[in-house]
């Protein structure tokens, strides 16, 4: 039986691999397509991806048992592919460290979320809820990016869980034994 923490670690490994595909797909698009307001949750394809990076950064920084090292420079507005790549490398490095240091007991610790944008009140969120929220957030915005890419006849880098799980060797075909 796989523990909850092992499942969460696998999801975040999967997301890191999948996010690389989205950056590479976005990098092939003309600047006008990347920055066009599409009337989605955030205006452009770049803005949607940058938002999901921001969510990862916000929650992981709060969950971490260590101080995040400073990022190089301030976040660019509007973001660019180069900035997204740099920020993604930074965020994924921190996520790997958070996941490596996390224990099952840590899932019950809480992280403080202040009243403000996205929250109607001050509250303490159990880390397990914050992490599962990030899974939901990632899947929501990935689906949104897929739909927007398909609208402009660009093949979205769909990378399903089962395919990934087999590629990284987590699931073995019982017939191969």
Structural summary, described in words:
The protein is mainly alpha-helical. It has one domain: Four Helix Bundle (Hemerythrin (Met), subunit A) (Up-down Bundle), CATH 1.20.120.450. Helix content is 57%, strand content 5%. The chain has six helices and two strands; from the N terminus they run H-H-H-H-E-E-H-H. It starts with a helix and ends in a 10-residue tail after the last helix. The model has no long low-confidence stretch (mean pLDDT 90).
End-to-end distance: 20 Å
Task: Give the H and E element order.
Answer: HHHHEEHH
Query: Mind telling me the CATH class?
Result: Mainly Alpha
Number of DSSP strands? 2
The residue fraction in helices comes out at: 55-70%
Task: Give a topology summary.
Elements: H1 4-27, H2 31-35, H3 45-63, H4 81-101, E1 110-113, E2 123-126, H5 127-151, H6 161-167
Antiparallel strand pairs: 1-2
Helix pairs in contact: 1-4, 1-5, 3-4, 3-5
Feature tags:
mainly alpha, two-stranded antiparallel ribbon, 6 helices, 57% helix, 5% strand
Give a quick summary of the entry.
With 177 residues, this protein is mainly alpha-helical. It is 57% helix and 5% strand.
């Amino acid at each position: 039986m796989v523990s909850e923490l092992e499942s969460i670690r696998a999801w975040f490994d999967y997301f890191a691999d999948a996010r690389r595909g989205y950056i590479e797909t976005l990098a092939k698009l003309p600047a006008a397509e990347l920055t066009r307001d599409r009337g989605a949750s955030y205006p452009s394809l770049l803005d949607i991806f940058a938002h999901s990076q921001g969510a990862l950064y916000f929650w992981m920084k709060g969950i971490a048992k260590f101080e995040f090292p400073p990022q190089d420079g301030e976040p660019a507005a509007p973001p660019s592919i180069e900035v997204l790549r740099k920020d993604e490398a930074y965020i994924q490095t921190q996520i790997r460290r958070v996941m490596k240091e996390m224990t099952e007991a840590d899932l019950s610790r809480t992280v403080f979320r202040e009243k403000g944008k996205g929250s109607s009140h001050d509250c303490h969120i159990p880390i397990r809820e914050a992490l599962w929220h990030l899974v939901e957030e990632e899947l929501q915005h990935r689906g949104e990016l897929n739909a927007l890419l398909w609208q402009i006849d660009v093949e979205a880098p769909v990378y399903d869980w089962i395919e990934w799980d087999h590629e990284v060797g987590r699931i073995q075909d019982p017939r191969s034994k």
